[in-house]
Amino acid sequence: MNIIKSIQSTVFVSLLSLTGLNLIAEKVKATALFVGSFDTNSVLSYDAETGDFIRSFINSGSGGLNGPVALTFGPDDNFYVISLLTNSVLRYDGRSGRFIDEFVTSGSGGLDTPQDLTFGPDGNLYVSSTATDSILRFDGVTGNFIDEFVPSGSGGANPPFGLRFGPDDNLYFSSTLTNEVLLFDVGTETTSTFATGTPGDFPGGITFGLDGNLYVANFGADNINRYDGTTGALIDVFVDNSNGLLDGGPVQPIFGPDGNLYISSRDDNRVVRYDGITGDFIDEFVPSGSNGLSTAGWLAFGETPLPVPESSSSLGLLAFMGILGGMKLIELKNKKQ
């Protein structure tokens, strides 16, 4: 009987140890950069410190994803992606990338050719509808259409592209064909010109920096303009593309956890990193075409689980086999008695 108890105890302890290893593997996290890969209908994740490929966070076509553009984490920590070619916003689990639902259904509220999205101070979701020259608002919990927040053509928007709420809680958005950034005053519900570029700039993605200034990606001029975040006056061309790494057209500038500026270059299929204070080139953070990246699009930083090590599943199998083996020994021992 002592032998039987010893076998049972050994198998039980081994199983606990192996289960513990699996639980630890599931809890491991890595800060990641998420990059939309338009041509492959997927979102790829890269290590935020090294730029090394982690895994395909959203697999090709998951949930009907067709032409991923803007992406962001929501207040619920889930991951939201615009599916351009279906005129919808899809929601995925923020840890696993598993498809949850079509959060904003196709064409809801007249949504047509959406490009960018952001959650506002009120927790609702705002989406630029470029084909209708408007910005639509959707309930941040249900995804239901609320209203046309910025009416069609308001302030001469043509079309609204990138959008972000500023430090003053007003909505700022690029008007691509007029080479402007417009400001929608939430209090007065009026639209005015905040910043003016030069003909041919074609501004797209925008972001506010840690310095409170506004950074605008010009995919016509292949550069990044910096504007005073209060007055809208042009400060400088923050990134001038002298090295040619943005020739493919910068889509979105975004500041990373290290305080530096990351820019996706659409047709070059890469992400480039620049010093967040000086604008100087640092490196090609995600090399061109890394792990199938094709037509590099919008960016987001967040947390993602690392792939569970293969050894954990192997260990689980060994544990199971150990139990079977132990039970077989117990059975044989009982027969001898």
Care to give the gist of this entry?
The protein has 337 residues and is an alpha+beta fold.
What do you see in this structure?
- With 337 residues, the chain is α+β, with helices and mostly antiparallel strands.
- The protein has two domains: 56 residues; 277 residues, Neuraminidase (6 Propeller).
- The chain contains two helices and 24 strands.
- The strands form six sheets. A four-stranded antiparallel sheet has the order 3-2-1-24, with no helix packed on it.
- A hairpin with a 4-residue loop joins strand 5 and strand 6.
- The protein starts with a helix and ends with a helix.
- The N terminus and C terminus are likely disordered.
Sequence stretches where pLDDT stays below 50 over 5 or more residues:
1-30, 308-337
- Return the structural class: alpha+beta
**Would you report the number of β strands?**
24
The largest β sheet comes out as: 4 strands, antiparallel
Main-sheet strand order equals: 3-2-1-24
The CATH topology name of the largest domain reads Neuraminidase
User: CATH class of the largest domain, please?
Assistant: Mainly Beta
**CATH superfamily membership of the largest domain:** TolB, C-terminal domain
CATH architecture name of the largest domain? 6 Propeller
Number of helices: 2
CA-to-CA gap between the ends?
Answer: 10 Å
Percent of residues in beta strands: 35-45%
Mean pLDDT level: 85
Helix and strand run: HEEEEEEEEEEEEEEEEEEEEEEEEH
From the spread of the alpha carbons, the general shape counts as globular
Computed over alpha carbons, the radius of gyration is 25 Å
Helicity level: 10-25%
Number of domains: 2
